[in-house]
Please model this.
Amino acid sequence: MSESIYQDNVGTHLAQTHPGNWRIFYVFSKMALQGFGGVMPFAYRAMVEQERWLSATEFAELLGICQIFPGPTICNIAVFVGRRLGGGTGVASAVSGLLVLPFLIAIALGAAYQRFGDFPIFRSALNGMAAVAAGLILATALKMARGLLKKQVGLPGILFKTIMLACAFACLGLLKWRLLTVFMLFAPVAVIAAYLLDRR
Amino acid sequence: MIALGELLGLCWHLAILSLMAIGGGLIMIAPEVHQYVVTEGRWITSEQFAAVFAIAQTAPGPNLLFISLVGWLIAGWAGAIGVTAAVIVPSTILTFLIARYSANAADSRFYRALRDGFAPISVGLMSGTGWLFMQVSNESWRADVLTVLSVLLVVKTKINPVFLILVGAIAGMAQWV
Model:
C-alpha cells in the first residue's frame, strides 16, 4: 500500500521535460520486446515505475480512455504519452518504438513459416499452437468479463452487461453474423442503456 | 501475389475494420480478416491464416502483428507494410486529434456511457472471436481439449502464454491434436 502511495507522490512531480525522441523510442521498443502475450504489464512497469513519465493513477485513467478509442489500446497509450513527452515527433517515436522491432521479428518468423511450413512436423506443431492461441483469446475475454462484472455495482447494471456480452458473443460466434452488423446493432443500444443506468 | 488494386482494396477494408476494434485491440477483427482474405479473396488458405495467427502470438509485441503476417503472405513486404499501416494510421490519427482537442472530457457522463456501453460488447466480441477460432482451426476433439486446458491455465494461474504455445507446438508434433 505505502508503495503505491509513494509512486503516486512521485507521479505528481513528474518531470515534464522532453526525454528525447531516441529515449522514447528505446523505452517503447523495450516494453514491446518484453511483451510476450501482452505489452500492457510492461508498459506499466516502464512508464510508471522506471521512467516515471506517469503516476499509477494517471496510467489507470489513460488506460480507461484509450480503451474506448478504436485501434490497439497500447498504440493509443503511446500516442497520448508520446504527445505529452515530445509532441508530434514524440508520438512518432513512441508508436514506431512499439512496432518496428516486433514487426521485423514477426516477418522473420513468417518467412521461416513460408520456407518450412509445408514440412509435416511444422504443420502438426502449428495445429497445436493454433489450438492454444484460440484458448488464449477466450481466456483474455474471460478475464476481461470477470473484471467488468466485478467492478459493476447493482443488479440492473450487472444484468445489462451480461446480456450485452451474451448477445455479442452469440451473434458473432454462434450465429456467425458479420462484426459490423453486430456492432451497429448493439453499440447504440448499449451506450444509451449505460447512459440511463449511470447514477453518478 | 495479388494486383496492386486488390492490395489497396484490402488495405482500405482493413482500415475501416480497425476503426471498429474498440476495447480489445485488433484480435476481434480476426474473423472479418479471415472472411475477407480466405473466403472471399482466396489469397491464402484457412490453414495458413490459423498458422500465422499462432506464429504472431508467439512473437513479442502488440497482437496486431498477425495482420502484418497475413499481409506478408499475400504480398511480401508491400503487403506487410501496407496492411500494418492501414490498421495503425487511422486510429492513431484519430487518437492524436482527440488527445489534442478533448483531454478534459474524460469524466463526463457521455464518456462514461461510451466506456460502460462498449466494454461488455467488446468482451462479447472477443469471446465470439475465440469461439470462431476454435471452430476454424481445431480439427479434432483433442485440439478442443487443448484449447479448453489453455483457457483454464491462463485464467487460474499466472503461467506465461508463450510457454503454453510451446506446449501446443510439442503436443502437435507428437500428433496428440
Remarks:
- The mean pLDDT of chain B is 88.
- The helical segments of chain B are 4-18, 30-40, 46-58, 65-101, 109-137, 141-156, 161-173.
- The first helix of chain B runs from residue 4 to 18.
- Residues 4-115 of chain B form one domain.
